[in-house]
Design brief:
alpha/beta, 12 strands, globular
Length: 498
């Protein structure tokens, strides 16, 4: 990992152009892989691929499972090719927006088609399906039952389910599996289809020497199969309500911090189990991706704990986590770990020491480099360590064009201009930052596709601290023009990243 200089693009699957209202594992993903190969890119970075829901604003960092794949990403075109659907099932289709994902409309159209595909499924005729269920038993059984129970209860919180189901009484679970057999089988079927389509895409990328770079949220939602199946691994009271929740203190993004409301791990219980749940989770992700970013890595060393019921994250405190015991167990189970630490925000010396001890590369963001401390700023290109990943910005930032136009003050713009040694024009500013990223010493340079296209604030993927209006952006068909491809390839070659 990071042995050679390389470049990549950050592009989430949902943001790919498609006539089906949402990007996914269909032809659009293969076309994007072709673009990466043609422009000399070696890495495709994605956001989490776990299931999303309208109730959580389709945030990929909030899911009902830390292990499952998102059925909305399944390609209907390939379901037609595989015989699960007929061509007329998917055409004509609604007139979806071309530059955003209307998750409600997409779900309303796509889910009945996924249901129809399931009706054509005969599990006894699919030995590969049986093998998939056996190999993924440790998470698939609980996930499928949880998904079926959620559907049967109308999405009621699992802590409000009848006590035998809430408490996972063995006899109640047996009866539920009998009563919900069809719904459970449907959930498993969709996970199998997702896995097959994902593996096909991964094989296609592998042949083109493109590695897939995944992203794993540190926390898991209360309303998830994981907490229902293992509630003792989190800090919950006797009614399965979190006693404390996760977040971050006031920072660059928010004066009151960020209150994520995610339950916090009971690390003592994880340690007693030999960190088995965590090891399974990491291994699952590394089955899907060639290397993996751990989001909010600092939370594995010390985390910001906020009493449940607080309206902001201000009244929290730092609490130590057993990072080294966990990482020792992880490396003992899997000596080669292609991990990258998301080390943005408030990073203390103990986090840096842990990263160094386990040889974990971190992230460098050029949008944070040009403040008053430019000469010594660790994100400034001349200070970037080779063993790191450099970005123009991340999915949590304004695209670099919007950052320059709307956020950078006159002094910051002047420093950037002097750093580049010339006057800047707003229209071409994104290419200046792309050049700095590719020219930097960092072994891997990743460019969000919005920055490659020079887009503004309307293309922002996420606004931390705001629940509404995120995750919708989608690239329009034909945006990756021959001119962009030629320019990116030229810079990639020029700075030795091909």
């Amino acid at each position: 990992m990071l042995e050679l200089r390389s470049g990549g693009i950050l592009m989430h699957l949902t943001s790919l152009p498609s006539t089906r209202g949402i990007g996914g594992l269909g032809p659009e993903a293969y076309e994007f892989a072709d673009f990466l190969e043609q422009t000399g890119q070696k890495v495709w970075q994605l956001l989490p691929l776990t299931p999303t829901a309208l109730a959580s604003h389709n945030d990929p960092y909030h899911s009902i499972s830390a292990f499952a794949g998102n059925p909305l990403l399944i390609s209907l075109e390939f379901m037609v090719e595989d015989g699960w659907l007929d061509p007329e099932d998917i055409s004509p289709h609604p007139a979806f927006p071309s530059d955003s994902v209307d998750f409600r409309a997409v779900s309303a159209w796509k889910e009945p088609l996924l249901n129809k595909a399931y009706t054509a499924f005969i599990p006894e005729e699919e030995p590969d399906f049986q093998r998939f269920c056996i190999e993924n038993y440790h998470w698939l059984e609980d996930y499928a039952l949880f998904a079926a129970l959620r559907q049967r209860t109308g999405g009621a919180p699992w802590a409000k389910w009848p006590a035998p189901l809430r408490d996972r009484d063995p006899e109640a679970l047996i009866r539920a599996r009998q009563d919900l057999g069809d719904e459970i089988l449907r959930a498993k079927f969709l996970q199998w289809v997702f896995a097959n389509q994902w593996e096909s895409l991964r094989a296609y990328c592998r042949k083109r020497r493109i590695t897939l770079f995944g992203d794993m949220p540190i926390y898991v939602d209360l309303e998830s199969a994981d907490l229902w199946a293992n509630p003792r691994l989190w800090k919950l009271d006797e009614d399965f309500v979190p006693t404390v929740v996760a977040g971050v203190p006031p920072d660059y993004f928010s004066a009151t911090g960020q209150l994520w409301e995610s339950p916090i791990y009971d690390w003592e219980q994880h340690e007693k189990d030999g960190f088995a749940w965590w090891l399974n989770r990491i291994n699952r992700n590394l089955e899907l991706f060639d290397f993996l970013r751990i989001d909010h890595f600092r939370g594995l060393v010390a985390y910001w704990e906020v009493p449940a019921g607080e309206e902001t994250a201000v009244n929290g405190e730092w609490v130590d986590a057993p990072a080294r015991k966990f990482l020792n167990a992880l490396y003992a189970s899997r000596p080669s770990l292609p991990l990258i630490a998301e080390d943005l925000g408030v990073i203390t010396p103990d986090v840096r020491e842990t990263m160094r001890a386990y040889n974990l590369p971190g992230m460098k963001i050029l949008a944070f480099a040009f403040g008053e401390d430019l000469p010594s700023n660790p994100y400034a290109p001349h200070n970037i360590e080779p063993f790191s990943v450099v970005y123009t910005g991340t999915h949590d930032n304004n695209p670099i064009q919007a950052w320059y136009d709307e956020e950078a003050d006159a002094e910051t713009r002047d420093r950037l201009s002097r750093y580049l040694g010339r006057s800047l024009t707003s229209d071409d500013l994104h290419w200046d930052l792309i050049r700095l990223a590719l020219a930097s010493p960092a072994r891997l340079a990743v460019i969000p596709v919005q920055d490659l296209l020079g887009l503004g604030a309307s293309a922002r993927m996420n606004r931390p601290g705001n629940l509404m209006g995120n995750w919708h952006w989608r690239m329009k068909e034909g945006s990756l023009t021959p001119e962009i491809c030629e320019r990116l390839l030229d810079l990639t070659k020029l700075y030795g990243r091909e």
